[in-house]
Amino acid sequence: MGLDINRFAEEVDEEFKCAICLNVLENPVNGPCGHVFCRQCIMTWLESGPTARPIRSGSRTVYASGTCPVDRKSLYRDELLEAAIPFKAILSKLKIKCDFQEFGCKNVVTVGTLKDHVKTCNFNPEEVVECPHGCAKLFVRRNLVKRPHNCIRELQSMIKLQEKIVDQLEVDKASSEKMVRNLQYVIILLMLLMSYLCYILMNPVSMSVV
């Protein structure tokens, strides 16, 4: 869908802008007429734009043709070609701000090196980072930017949580102690029963006389 024109460090010539999205070309392709577009933009235009025409492909009907959005000449998907190497070489040298500039990255790189930079950028919003104020709590950077972290408030929440856990452990402890007492009582009864059975087994005659 093109690279946001506002991310570029310098003014970009019109020849490097997509005629559909009006942003700087991304994966540029051109048709027989010579007009250049972002690959995704022109494919979407040909498949679902106002001039899209159905084409039979075996038993299927596909929408892969239409007209050039600039000069309205007939244009088929199969006619699209990658932009010339010299053209892409110049495009790749344009200066652009990092994808993560809103998260603090100040780097300006070339379009050609942007993907490699993004892979290793320390301001990746999905990266897990420690609290910048020193409380050692971990955050996904995106969440930290959206909702600034307050260490004191966070510690108060942690204390309240620990207090709840302690209260629950006290309840569990009381319940466990009651359970232990009940089990001890059952054990005593079982021991008495066992003693009685042993006595019967050891004194069968006396029990029969009774």
Brief overview:
Helices cover 42% and strands 17% of the residues. It has 210 residues and is α+β, with helices and mostly antiparallel strands. The chain has 3 domains: 5-94, Herpes Virus-1, CATH 3.30.40.10; 98-149, no CATH class; 151-209.
Question: How is the secondary structure organized here?
Answer:
Blueprint: E1 28-30, E2 36-38, H1 39-48, E3 53-57, E4 60-67, E5 74-76, E6 81-82, H2 85-92, E7 95-97, E8 108-110, H3 114-120, E9 128-130, E10 138-140, H4 141-146, H5 151-202, H6 204-209
Antiparallel strand pairs: 1-2, 1-6, 3-4, 4-5, 7-8, 9-10
DSSP strand tally: 10
User: What ranges have pLDDT less than 50 throughout 5 or more consecutive residues?
Assistant: none
Give the structural class.
Answer: alpha+beta
Tally the helices: what do you get?
6
Basic shape: elongated
Written overview of the protein:
By secondary structure, the protein is of the alpha+beta class. 42% of the residues lie in helices and 17% in strands. It folds into 3 domains: 5-94, Herpes Virus-1 (2-Layer Sandwich); 98-149, no CATH class; 151-209. The protein is built from 6 helices and 10 strands. The strands form 4 sheets. A 3-stranded antiparallel β-sheet has the order 2-1-6. Strand 9 (128-130) and strand 10 (138-140) form a beta hairpin. The model has no long low-confidence stretch (mean pLDDT 83).
Keywords:
210 residues; alpha+beta; 3-stranded antiparallel β-sheet; 10 strands; 42% helix; elongated
